Amino acid sequence: RCVIKELESLGKALYGAKLIAQRFQVRNCSHHKDPVSGSTCLLSMIENDNPHHFFIATQDQDLSNKVKKKPGVPLLFIIQNTMVLDKPSPKSLAFVQKLQTNQLVPEYQKQSIVELKEKEGLAKQEGEKRRKRKRAGGPNPLSCLKKKKKKTEEGQEPSAEKKKRRKRKRNR
């Protein structure tokens, strides 16, 4: 609502943008009685880890830089009449990596696993490194190929006879 109010206040220059914004679903924000600027409103809606999974579509460089600082907020912009989804920010990638590692094994389970390994004597010791044994390889597979048969004189004669036959020409 704040974005639409801001577009209305800017006048006829941005009338087309206002019509486009009105076509989309209007989300209620916390400042519907006293509207603030559009970028401030959008930033306040994605403030707490983007609970509604909003995308932000903007051409404003300042707003896009602020959005990139928040993890998990996709950013859209337009280049030559084409909508482009920006690649994930480093903050988003780090956040996802952290979530994935925490989801695999919780921290308290990691500690208990380490304690159990030490108790059973299975903990890895730094000085102990195992080497893989080199196994004896078999023969070279290329040396095991069957030998190609040589052409005999008898095999060449029938093919020579076929070449000597003439094709009949048609008269029209």
From TrEMBL:
Residues 117-172 are annotated as: Disordered. One of its GO terms (biological process) is rRNA processing. The keyword Endoplasmic reticulum does not apply. InterPro entries: Fcf1/UTP23, PIN-like_dom_sf, UTP23_sensor. It comes from the Eukaryota. It is found in: Nucleus, Nucleolus. Residues 117-129 have a biased composition (Basic and acidic residues). Keywords: Nucleus, Ribosome biogenesis, rRNA processing. This is UTP23 protein.
